[in-house]
């Protein structure tokens, strides 16, 4: 077996809005996630006293994190990726002074992780922002939001500078093209020009956060986070190959700006041909020159691209409008399973950027069942993760610099897309269903013991 680096960061990844609950506790404000109780593709719901959303409690990580961190430590985690809920720190997003109770919660969380030698990998904005910034200021469509975000980032960098050395700016930043409210606080139906202007403000804010991190925590590393939407041509027809290049550029564009510090020529042409005139100031251009230290990304599946409009019409409605690959199997949710695609993506990103790579989301959502003896035999998850990690080892042997791997999510959480508990990813089962019923009891699955062995052996136990 190809060996992983001795300092490889093994762990898992969660998001505040999908695990914490306590959605109005200790001064927390409403976030965009809170007003989308049915998930990122659901309708906006104005919250009222006494109404219900499954994320309001989620898996109650806010209160139960000590036992969950202990379970992660039992598996041998070197790191845990989580996010800070912006609205715990600045409930409305535009305050001058932070909410001390929110800051204190993350102090306690990071201290608990430190007890077990688990490094926090912290995302500043993971699929949520203060709802008041959307209502009052227009979300990321307003240039003022850059300043609000920088103030928030500097506040948490200052507070946790001795506790957190790995940071990410925006989760799956390219998802704004598909879910504008979740990504940039704009309503569905916003024009491409409006969305790209909001994205521009977010890219500037990300660069400013990188600069602030370098100033405040000189020994920290801060990266971006991309949704790794790798596409293949459906055929070797040149038209399909060209369309595939164009599709891959729609998400690689974000990495190009964050790694190279300027807009690539192909995007400038796209803006010209689509009558998109962005407001980019000289100060913006200067800010963008501050680039990230590493690239982090999620990887779940690949898809195909074709110039054939009839085939494209048939594919509309599945995630990211991918044309299915006839050579790949699919999960229960129709996500195609492609371990080799992870090796291809790692090589592609390394060749393109020559920056360290961090796989911060990868996993299999499935409907787990408890056996009569109380065990949860999730051999399908073990197989999925094993095959993907074997390909990571191959990429490392190819010469790719890979910092670490955090599975999504190491404990069952509320899914982002449709706010389901039944779509389970974890090594740890949480007794809660889609209706919010259950005891919240934690239970180890077979994959818990499997992943423990993988970490203990630094990958040597993987089956090729």
Walk me through the topology.
Layout: E1 9-13, H1 16-19, H2 61-75, E2 79-83, H3 86-89, H4 100-115, E3 119-125, H5 131-137, H6 144-159, E4 166-170, H7 180-184, H8 192-216, E5 221-227, E6 231-233, H9 238-260, H10 265-273, H11 282-288, E7 294-298, E8 303-305, H12 309-315, H13 339-353, E9 357-361, H14 379-397, E10 402-408, E11 428-430, E12 442-444, H15 446-456
Parallel strand pairs: 1-2, 1-10, 2-3, 3-4, 4-5, 5-7, 6-8, 7-9, 9-10
Antiparallel strand pairs: 11-12
Helix pairs in contact: 2-4, 6-8, 8-11, 13-14
Could you explain the architecture of this structure?
The chain has 464 residues and is α/β, with parallel strands linked by helices. The protein has a single domain (9-456), classed as Glycosidases (TIM Barrel). The protein contains 15 helices and twelve strands. The protein has helices spanning 16-19, 61-75, 86-89, 100-115, 131-137, 144-159, 180-184, 192-216, 238-260, 265-273, 282-288, 309-315, 339-353, 379-397, 446-456; strands spanning 9-13, 79-83, 119-125, 166-170, 221-227, 231-233, 294-298, 303-305, 357-361, 402-408, 428-430, 442-444. The strands form three sheets. The chain has an eight-stranded parallel β-barrel with strand order 1-2-3-4-5-7-9-10, surrounded by five helices. A two-stranded parallel sheet has the order 6-8. The relative contact order is 0.14. The mean pLDDT is 95.
């Amino acid at each position: 077996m190809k060996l992983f680096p001795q300092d490889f960061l093994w762990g898992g990844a969660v998001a505040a809005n999908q695990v914490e609950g306590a959605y109005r506790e200790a001064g927390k404000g409403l976030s965009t996630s809170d007003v989308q109780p049915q998930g990122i593709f659901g309708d906006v719901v104005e919250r009222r006293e006494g109404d219900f959303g499954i994320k309001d409690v989620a898996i109650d990580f806010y209160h139960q994190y000590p036992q969950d961190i202990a379970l992660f430590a039992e598996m041998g985690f070197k790191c845990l990726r989580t996010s800070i809920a912006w609205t715990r720190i600045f409930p409305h997003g535009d305050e001058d002074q932070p909410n001390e109770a929110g800051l204190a919660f993350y102090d306690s969380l990071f201290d608990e992780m430190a007890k077990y030698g688990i490094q926090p990998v912290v995302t500043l904005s993971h699929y949520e922002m203060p709802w008041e910034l959307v209502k009052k200021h227009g979300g990321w469509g307003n240039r003022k939001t850059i300043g609000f975000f920088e103030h928030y980032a500097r506040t948490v960098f200052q507070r946790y500078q001795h506790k957190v050395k790995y940071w990410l700016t925006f989760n799956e930043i390219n998802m704004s093209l598909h879910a504008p409210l979740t990504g940039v606080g704009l309503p569905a139906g916003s024009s491409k020009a409006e969305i790209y202007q909001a994205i521009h403000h977010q890219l500037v804010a990300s660069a400013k956060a990188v600069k602030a991190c370098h100033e405040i925590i000189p020994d920290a590393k801060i990266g971006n986070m991309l949704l790794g939407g790798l596409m293949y041509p459906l055929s070797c027809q040149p038209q399909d190959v060209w369309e595939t290049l164009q599709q891959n550029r729609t998400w690689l564009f974000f990495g190009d700006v964050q790694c190279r510090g300027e807009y690539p020529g192909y995007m400038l042409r796209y803006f010209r041909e689509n009558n998109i005139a962005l407001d980019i100031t000289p100060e913006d251009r200067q800010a963008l020159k501050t680039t990230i230290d590493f690239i982090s990304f999620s990887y779940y599946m690949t898809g195909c691209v074709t110039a054939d409009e009839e085939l494209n019409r048939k594919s509309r409605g599945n995630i990211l409008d991918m044309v299915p690959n006839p050579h790949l199997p699919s999960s229960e949710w129709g996500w195609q399973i492609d371990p080799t695609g992870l090796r291809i993506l790692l090589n592609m990103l390394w060749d393109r950027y020559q920056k360290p790579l961090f796989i911060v989301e990868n996993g299999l959502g499935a409907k787990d069942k408890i056996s009569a003896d109380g065990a949860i035999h999730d051999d399908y998850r073990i197989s999925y993760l094993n095959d993907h990690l074997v390909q990571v080892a191959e990429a490392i042997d190819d010469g790719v610099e890979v910092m670490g791997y955090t599975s999504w999510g190491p404990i069952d959480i509320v899914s982002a897309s449709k706010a389901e508990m039944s779509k389970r990813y974890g090594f740890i089962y949480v007794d809660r269903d889609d209706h919010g019923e259950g005891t919240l009891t934690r239970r180890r699955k077979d994959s818990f013991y499997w992943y423990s062995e993988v970490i203990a052996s630094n990958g040597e136990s993987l089956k090729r």
